[in-house]
Every structure is written in structure tokens, then in C-alpha cells.
Design brief:
The protein is α+β, with helices and mostly antiparallel strands and 798 residues long. The protein contains 24 helices and 31 strands. It is 36% helix and 19% strand. Helix 4 packs across helix 11, helix 5 crosses helix 8 and helix 13 packs antiparallel against helix 14.
Amino acid sequence: MKIIKKVLLVLLILLVVFGIASLFFINSLKPDYEGTKELKSLSAESNVYYDTYGIPHIYAENEEDAFRTLGYVHAQDRLWQMELLRRVAKGGLSEVFGKDLVATDKFFLSLGIDEQSKKTVSEIAKETEMVKLSQAYLDGVNAFIEDGPTPIEFYLTGLDKTPFSLVDIYDAVGYMAFSFAMAHKTDPLLTNIRNQLGNAYIKELAVDSDSSTVWIKNHTDKTTDSIPINITANVTKAMEKLPIPQFIGSNSWVLAPEKTKNGKVILANDPHIGFAQPSVWYEAHVNTPNYEKYGYHMAGIPFPLLGHDRNLAYGLTMFENDDIDFYFEETNPSDSTQYKTESGWESYQYVSKTIKVKDEKDIEFDYKKTRHGPVLNKISNQIKGEQPVAMSWIYTQVSNEVMDALYGISHAEDIKEFEAALPKIHAPGLNVMYGDAKGNVAWWATAKLYQMPDGISTKFILDGTTGKEEPLRFLDFTENPQAINPPWNYVYSANNQPDSIGGMLYPGYYLPENRAKRIVTLLDEKDDWDKESVSNMTLDVTSSVNPELVTELIKLVDISSLSEEQLVQLDALKNWKGNYPLENTSATLYHRCEYYVLKNTFEDELGKEQFKQFLSTHLLKRHIAWGTAKEIGLWWDNVHTKDKVETRGDIALKSFADAWTSLVRDFGPDPSNWTWDKVHTIEHGHPIGQVAALRKYFNVGPFPVHGTREVINNMSFPYDSTGFYKVSSGPSTRRIIDFSDIENSISILPTGQSGNPFSKYYKDQAEMFVRGEFRKMMMNKQEIMENTNSQLNFVPNQ
């Protein structure tokens, strides 16, 4: 008995020791938010004041010290995110996550982002302020890598920490540029549909610009004085496996003084990005005697993509222009190393790469390139036949000055300096939104746009052999869509089609008018906007379009075939306002019906796999309202029923029945249980959280959340057969900048400031975000110091 007691005592002691050791280990992995640290190359002491939400307010004697400090504090909260982001372009994800990411690595290697980054860095002048500040930021990142604690993810994956370089910054920018692109999902699919079904089916899709939609109006008045008061399947799967967020869409509007209660500009911006943990933005308030910016930074990029100070503010949305084209090439039948051009046979360029794979042998990967870009046949197994298909992407076709642009807009002191930096953004295509303390408001669509020959649609795979389907010229930046101080006193963008300048429209993958229509309606109806009313508008969950679709389709339903309960719900749906509170049931019924309308319309012609691809495109989103309004069309007929030609009414009735059956199956026969909160949820997934046992430690959520696809509070989700709408993307931040009270401007993040799961700032904003709450973006130093949660000081290394 005594021996057993001794054994138990020893086990207890060991357990206690293990527990204490574990606590010490975990504590050692946390970011340091207070104390004093030495920092290499620092010229004078810098101070970091962390506010209640872990936002660093950095005060330094000069910009290089400030950016060096920023690099350190950014890395200690987001090093894992930085690591993943720089690995995308290098084809380095398989080394972390294993063979499931090989296809993703192959695809991104073939894009040539890393090669272009290396070329750019080798050619840039090293003594520019942009490079000096970028290098200072990298010095801070690398100081943390050398001296700071190792994030838990590195232990779990067995990955070593390695220094960052300028190439890594450019690689991160390159990933951002491609993440915005939509052509890879759309062009090959449309080509397949045209080849399989014919042009008649293509004409009944919303492929081109719709002249009846809400367009962004241009206004090119340059006055800037102050105002008085088959490839698709594999490519899509490769993108879906990315363990970092993808850029999706966005809302923004900027109100001129005439539209606001206090007679000052108000800027609102909520970029829509794939939800993940950590969230994409890192907030930092940077101060020196000659520079101040409250900015939102991407992992590994020193200059803020969103920002404001006391003089001006700026935000971004996706332009959605078409900057990727696919080309059919022709191989020389007598020499397989050559391909055809209008000038004769040219030699393929052959590229070899090695992909490191976790717990597997390295994979040797090679592909070939034409003048247009990488040939995707070996990259995508979905391509059938021998004819090569090459992808031309503007990002890698011209010189890269995007970092110079980001430096320029973050250091501009007025609208003229700000605009001067924008032509350097060749890709991704961005709507840049601007407002300032002098009363100016502006919107510019920034991208290296090009003109194609008349009659050539870039929505299909082009002929690469003749030279007749190549770009004719690049447009001058003055030909880009833009509006500066328009007479209607606001600018906005919601990823919708911009109007033409000089009679030219701009090919793109624009989103439908739903959000645009709602934004314009709300902005036009009042002229006394303030911070509170603008923040309420960012949370708006009413669709201007969906009730119109309901009205259109309900007319087609044969009510004589419906039960009494179905008639009750149909009547409720008829009176639905298109809103999405959590307790709403009509919203749930509507989306089940909409999915089945799409399924019953398209799946018979496309097949299951291509229908799934179709659901992931902006083309499908644009088609919903436009296509539903068509009384007669080829798509309505089910090609599998040989003895009947289905009508729009047949599809509407069947879809309502299918939706009803699915809801009864999932929630029972009582429609009062079909509430929106049961189907519409948000969970912020961490790459490590994909392991079931670790999900609760790394993921944030799930939470029921109001909102839906294509409303202002755009909580977007993919349609699939489950009928459950797991939110995949939405506002990556909500920001309201009010120049009448700049120090009390407000924002929110979807989860928290830190990417370290042991940090108290890991998920402290998550429930606030779901509830639609905001927090202050402090800029007043005295207030910051009075409300400091902790202070971290950096001193020069002795």
C-alpha cells in the first residue's frame, strides 16, 4: 500500500511539474507588450503604446526607426501569417502542409510572381526612401525572428524561422494582385460552355456589360482646390486550398461636405476578403516629427494599403477589371519545342522547379512558357487534348512599381501628390477612394488597362497564333474611370461596372448591382450624414434586388398545388422586405429557392462539376437577377426530359418544392424553426485549426451572423447542396473616418489584432464584429498615453 501511495505521489509531482513547465512554455510564446528591448540599427529610443485592443501606437524620432519598430511589433503578432504569405509565390506551402498543396504550389510557381519579384529587386535603386523604409521594416521583422519567441505554429509544423528580404515583400504584393483576379475562374469555363452548347447559350448569360444596371459615374473635373464647405476546376481547387485569405470585393463611399451634417468629409470603407484567422489587416499608428499615419498593413508589407491622418484618408475596393487573358497556342508538328506566332515559329521557354513536400520526397516540376505566359496543360489536369493553353497576366508583363505607389499614397500630403502615385499601380486593379480635410472627395480606378481589337471578347480563350487578338495599346491613366469632386457630392464603389470615358467600356468581372443600387439609393435620399448614420449604413442588410426576384417568381407558382402552410409562407415571402435579421425565416426560404432555381436551370446542361465551377464565378452572381427576368430562354429547358420543354414557370414550381422538402428534412415541418441564424454562420479558420482536435484552440467561432450575399453588410457564402451558408468572406474591417472629429474615427476587425493564439488580442473583437459594434481609432497622444494598456520601449543596441 505504501508503495502505491509513493508511486501516486511521484506521478502527482510529475504531473504538477509538467503542468508548471507547460505554463512556462506557453507563457514564453506570448508576444511581449511591455518592457524594454534592444533593437539593432535603431538610432534613438522608440516607444510603443498598446491600447485596449492591442493596437500599437509607435512614436519614434525618425521614419526609419519608426518602420524598424513597426517591423518588430508586426512580426511578434503576425510572423506565422507573414511566413505563409511569402511562401505562396515561392511554391512553398507543400513544405508546411504536405502533398495536398502540391497543385497550389505548381500553379503559383507557374505564374512567375517570385521570378518577377527577384528581377524587380535586382533593378530598383537601393537608395530611394521606399527601399530604405522597406529595409528598416525588414530589419525589425528579422530582429524578432532572431531574438523573439518562436510562434507555436512553427513548433507544430517543424518549420524553421528564416530572415525576410525585399523579394518577400514583392512576393506578398504579387499574391495580393492575383488573389483579386477572376478570369481564371471564368474564361475557360465560358469557352467550354460555348464549345459544348453553342453561342446561343452564351448569349443568354450575363457575360457583357448590362446597360440597365447601376454604373459608377465618372467625373473628370481636375479642379482640386478645397471645396467650399477546363482549366477552371483545378485552378479553382488550387485557390481553395490556400491557407490564407483571398481578396473578394468591397464597399466604399466618400461624402463631400454638402452631404454631411458637420460640413466635413466622411469616408467609409469595408474591403471584402476571405475570412480567416488571423484576419488580413494589422493596424498600426505610426508617428514621427515629420510623418503620421494610422494604417492597415498586410503581412510582410511595410506601407499601409488603407490609412488616414489629419489631412487625408484613403481606402480600397476591387476594380474587377480583366487583367488575365488565355491563349490557345499551336505547337510545331515538326519540332515540339516551338510554337506558332504571326512572325513564324518561336521557341518555348522551359522552366524547372523543385517543390519540397512535408514527409515526402521533393517533386521536380517543369513547365513551358510562350510570349503570353505559362502553358497550363501540365499544371491543370483538366485540360484535355494536346493544344497548349497559355495564360497572360498583366502583373508579370510590365515593370513593377506597386511598392513605389504604396509609399507614395502613404506619404502624400494632398490630393495632387496622392493622385500622382496612382499610375504606378499596374495590378491588381483597385478602386482607390479618397477624402481630405479640405473637402475633396475622389475615386480613381487604378490599373494598367489595355485596348483590344474591335470584336474581340477577352471572356473566352483567344487565338495566340495570328497576332490579331493581342492588345493594341495601353491606356493612359487619364483614360481610366475616375471621379473627382463630382457635382452629386459623393463617390462610391461596390465592385460594379464603371461608366465609360471616351466611349470605351472596360472589360471586367463586375459584381451585380445589388450593393451599388442600395448604396446609391441610401446616399441620394439624405444630406445630413454623420458618423453614426454612416456606421449604421455599413451594417445594412437589406437587398434592393432580392424582393424583386421574389415578386417575379411568385407569379409563376401554381398556388392550386400548394398546401395551406406553403401558401402562408409564400404570402410571407411576397411581403418580405429583403432584410436578414437572425430570426427571419423568409430569408432562409428565399435562398433555398434561389439555389434550386440555379440548380434546376443550369446543372442539366453543364453537369455537376461545371455547375459547381459556375457557382463560384461573378458571372453567376450577375446572371441571377438578369436571367430570372427572361421569360423565354434555352436554359429553362431540362435537356434530360426528351418529351417536354420546361418553362420558367416549371422551374419556379419545382424549385419551390425542392426547397420546401430540403427545409423540412433539415429543420422539421414547422417553418417557424427555419430561422436565418440556423443556416448562416461565420467561423474564422486557422490553418492549424483544420485539425479537428485543435480547432477550438485556433479557430474563432462559429457564430450566427446577420447579413447575406450582395448586401452592404456583405457576409458572403458559396451556394452548394447542403443548404447551409457558411460565411466565407466579408468585411475585413469596417472603417469610418470623419474629418469633423478625426480623433474619434471608428473601426473594427473581424477577430483581433494578434495572430498569436496565446495573445489576449487574438479574438477580443470577434463578438463585437458580429454584433456590428465599433471601437475608436485613437490619434491623440495624451489620450493614448492615458488609456495605454501596456508600453513597450525599444532602445538602440549597444
